[in-house]
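Section 3.1: Structural characterization of target chains.
Under the original work plan, the team committed to producing a structural model for every single-chain target entering the pipeline before any wet-lab resources were allocated. The record below documents one such target. The sequence was received from the expression subgroup and is listed exactly as submitted; it comprises 302 residues.
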Amino acid sequence: MDSSVTIIVESYNFTEDRDAAPLRRALHAACELRREDPAGREVILTDAAPSGALSMLLKDFPEVRHVAASGLSYDEAKFRAVREARGEYVVFLDGDCVPQPGWLEAHCAALRSGEAVATGGFTRYEGGWFAALCTLLDFGFLLPLERRSLGCYASNNSGFHRPTLLEIPMCESELRCNCYAHAQALMRARKPVLLIPEARVRHKTPHFFGERFRQGSDTVAACRVNPELRENRWLRLGIFAAPLFYSELVRLDWRRLASGYRDLELPLWSLPFAALLCPVFRLVDLCGIVKALAFQPPTASA
């Protein structure tokens, strides 16, 4: 291999909100990490933006390799970069994330030692108490932060032994990101994703209502494309399954809050308020769940 580690930064999020500032921060951080070991590290940007939209930005980062990915899905764009990578290991950093100190070293230590062929780090939204609670809703499945196998990882903060990833690639479906199905495929191959608590990134906090509605819709879609999920059998109930999905989300929020509030940087005194707000915030998810159930394909419950 020409380079031992490839940091892959995606621009798919830029195509959604057209805010170049987070992508610039991500590329700056990735390039700083590359400069620590120019011979052993490279940075690739998957350019999913319309032709020429990122040309001015790329001029500020001449050391970044450009991989055209216009028209490709989130997972497809990332996998194209994997095929183009020169490193034995690839580490994903989304364009709306900034790595924290020790992030790359934590991923690479586990990969290089052979402890794991796939690693997942912890993603937290930028900000204070509200951002911590939003993190619980979206990335609570990573809590508590203990070194363990993951049934699902955060694609914005993950690492892989490249030959293994080429052998067991990310899946494709109607979902924007198929990290659950991919983690399950790796687990079946006895190559599970290992949670690395020290590999942390800060993620731009998304627009609350849009993100919550999308997450609710994806909750249903995930059951359609992953029939092994126990919630899949609820689909046959149609729209009447909505309370079941909603109740399960709130139950998991409360359990993860109790075990992982320190990892979220939440003070102990705030837990009652957080526990009360979880069901309120999840009402927006419920709207997305209802919409997805109401318009699900007729064969979804088969």
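The mean pLDDT is 93.
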